[in-house]
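User: For a teaching handout, I'd like to show students what a predicted protein-ligand complex looks like in token form. I'll give you the sequence and the SMILES for nicotinamide-adenine-dinucleotide. Please answer with just the structure.
Assistant: Understood, here is the input followed by the structure.
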Amino acid sequence: MEKIKMTTPIVEMDGDEMTRILWKLIRENLIEPYVDLKTEYYDLSIQSRDETDDQIVKDAANAIKKYGVGVKCATITANKARQVEYNLKNIFPSPNGTLRAMLDGTVFRAPIIVKGIEPYIPTWKKPITIARHAYGDIYKAVDYKVEEAGKAEIVFTNESGEEAMRKTVFDYKGPGVLMGMHNVNASIESFARSCFNYALDTKQDLWFCAKDTISKIYDGEFKAVFEEIFEKEYKEKFEEANITYFYTLIDDAIARVVKSEGGFVWACKNYDGDVMSDMIATAFGSLAMMTSVLVSPYGYYEYEAAHGTVQRHYQNYLKGEKTSTNPVATIFAWTGALRKRGEMDSNNELMAFADRLENATIKTIESGKMTKDLALITKMERPEMLYSEEFIQAIKNTLDGKIETVEEDPLETKIINEFLDAKLYKEKIDILNKYKDKLTDKLITSFAVSLDVVVDEGSLDKRFESLQSCVEQMAKFETTGLR
Ligand SMILES: NC(=O)c1ccc[n+]([C@@H]2O[C@H](COP(=O)([O-])OP(=O)(O)OC[C@H]3O[C@@H](n4cnc5c(N)ncnc54)[C@H](O)[C@@H]3O)[C@@H](O)[C@H]2O)c1
């Protein structure tokens, strides 16, 4: 099969820990066999950022400005503990913060919807994308703990040193708290344009909400900026695309969101977006199924997974253990970037490949094969828990048209359910012994993944013994009184 050609590179930003391991697996198994991949590679691992005094992040941002599209692996945001762990010279700021500052964008987060991983809200049928304004308000506020009676004032002095405004905030009769926050029109305008562009790109309605009935000037300005830009620059484009923009109060928006079937972009002010994006991610099922794209008002796009580097799994990986880390959001970061590259270069084949890979990923999960995080929340009767490598291989099989049809086997379902429902390891040992003759390789793998253990390779008997010995070890440390 001839590989799909690319004309312009994608800016590829490698990252840290478990997601770095997944990155290589995804690239080698799901992309390189099909696409003659052209990337400009930047290593944003914590070691590389430290060695280059963070210059590598700035170089990557400039490359995105040059080529228009980037894809990023999750990276560690350094702190004191990480400085010690990785022996770093410095604690550099979050790479995402640096990229956002240089590309001036808005982050859009959308869940990946799969049958069997149902949202907690049953009416939600399509994804809800949160667009969070990422500048100012309480995140850049000045606050003060008032200890005594006194007057708080707000003063604005213009550049010529004249006092243009002075207002009393409050006459304190005793202790209290005080805060002053700000925003700037340039940032609100770029937020609005990013939202309108994203809605057009994805052909979804745009909702924007604030609380201008109470915050008449502050939130009123957000509302006015959105309205003015929409009327002047986007109204006709929205009509052509058959999508709508509407503004509503945040309380009304929340009521409508809960009752909706999804399928729109929900633009929120900074704090509202902070709170609502966690609500949306949780209500849709899993952080590992959340995509994230930074859209700059200048037409640059940077795709990534919403989750972090999955440090806990990496610690297991370093001990030589296999992990069942979910690669879906990282796969979708790649497909997002490939599709956008295809769109910019009028490369239909590349766009179609991105669709195929996404469909293959979803189909694989819907066929019952998934990583542990999904198996624990799925409504499917008989999920097959796989390690990351096997799950990626299963996606590749689906992509290659080698779909295994899974015969419904009631006994297998019964054994899995009994094993997962058993609260004590001692009970699990009994179940293993009871069904010893009925166990298959697939069942042994599912049990091992569910327990976070790795069984020896080899014959079925050898694998059974290895699993049995792991569960026996666990049973030794089981203290029933503590449960
Ligand atoms: N976009 C980014 O680059 C980004 C975002 C968040 C955190 N981080 C960094 O990641 C590191 C780890 O942070 P964290 O542990 O708070 O967040 P995390 O998202 O890596 O993991 C939090 C928990 O969520 C679950 N989880 C997340 N992704 C998963 C996946 N793909 N498969 C299975 N389970 C998954 C795991 O239970 C994990 O323990 C930190 O150093 C942080 O700075 C980076």
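For the handout, you might add this sentence: Residues 74-77, 96, 287-288, 304, 307-312, 325-326, 373 surround nicotinamide-adenine-dinucleotide (CB under 6 Å).
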